UniProtKB/TrEMBL annotation:
Name of the protein in its database record: Transcriptional regulatory protein
Superkingdom field: Bacteria
Major location category of this protein: cytoplasm
SMART domains registered for this protein in UniProt: REC
UniProt-annotated location(s): Cytoplasm
Residues spanning the signal sequence: none
PROSITE patterns: RESPONSE_REGULATORY
4-aspartylphosphate: modified positions: 56
Keywords noted in UniProt: Activator, Cytoplasm, DNA-binding, Phosphoprotein, Transcription, Transcription regulation, Two-component regulatory system
InterPro entries (UniProt xref): 2C-system_Tx_regulators, ArsR-like_HTH, CheY-like_superfamily, HVO_A0261-like_N, Sig_transdc_resp-reg_cit/mal, Sig_transdc_resp-reg_receiver, WH-like_DNA-bd_sf, WH_DNA-bd_sf
Lineage: Bacteria, Bacillati, Actinomycetota, Actinomycetes, Micrococcales
């Protein structure tokens, strides 16, 4: 079964059906048959290995938040409860989102799209950089762009390494102890924002090389 598999856990069959249909309507998602109890949810997780669980808090045989805490599965909590302690408990249990019922199905669709971006950003087989992790967290919050604090700190280091000199990405990488690819990525981002000037020079081998200088 291709796509992101989603299990809805809600004892109200009408609400569960609405949420299931909202999931099924999103490209790239597969809606599993909803579960109505904690017991049914555990059985469904064991049988179908969902990628995401949408759990209500109040279930006939237990607490949906504790269900989320016990599962090794990404989850949203969907509940009518609006007291701060319940919301805090949901996030401390590992919920990636908390949606207050009732809500427009477009709200759920938007959160599902965020989750798809978040999941895609964290699916790389290579070791993740701090920037990768920050971008995934920002995607889940709905922040597509916007530099992270860690990225800003790295860019400040790159700018400091340039100083008043002109340098290549390789030279900057050697000065601050990162890979050339990392230095190149940050220098390009700084150039796009007008914080670094880029010029083309021909080296001793006759091959063109981008040179960077701080300041517009």
């Amino acid at each position: 079964m291709n796509g992101i598999r989603v299990l809805v856990v809600d004892d109200d069959f009408r609400v569960a059906g609405l949420h299931r249909d909202a999931v099924a309507a999103r490209p790239g998602f597969v809606a599993l048959e909803p579960a109505r109890t904690v017991g049914e949810a555990r059985a469904a997780v064991a049988a179908h290995a969902p990628d995401l669980v949408l759990a209500d808090v109040y279930l006939p045989d237990g607490d949906g938040i504790e269900l989320v805490r016990s599962l090794d599965v990404d989850a949203f909590v969907l509940s009518a409860a609006t007291d701060a302690s319940t919301v805090r408990r949901a996030f401390s249990a590992g919920a990636l989102a908390y949606l207050v019922k009732p809500f427009d199905t477009r709200v759920l669709a938007e959160r599902l799209d965020r989750f798809a971006r978040y999941r895609n950003l964290l699916s790389s087989p290579r070791p993740l950089s701090q920037d990768d992790i920050d971008r995934a967290a920002a995607a889940m919050r709905g922040e597509r762009d916007g530099p992270s604090l860690a990225r800003s700190a790295t860019e400040q280091t790159v700018l400091a390494a340039l100083g008043a000199d002109e340098a290549s990405a390789t030279e900057v990488a050697e000065r601050i102890g990162v890979s050339r690819a990392t230095a190149q990525r940050h220098l390009t981002a700084l150039a796009e924002r007008g914080l670094v000037q880029v010029s083309l020079r021909y080296g001793s081998t006759g091959r063109p090389e981008h040179r960077f200088r701080a300041g517009a």
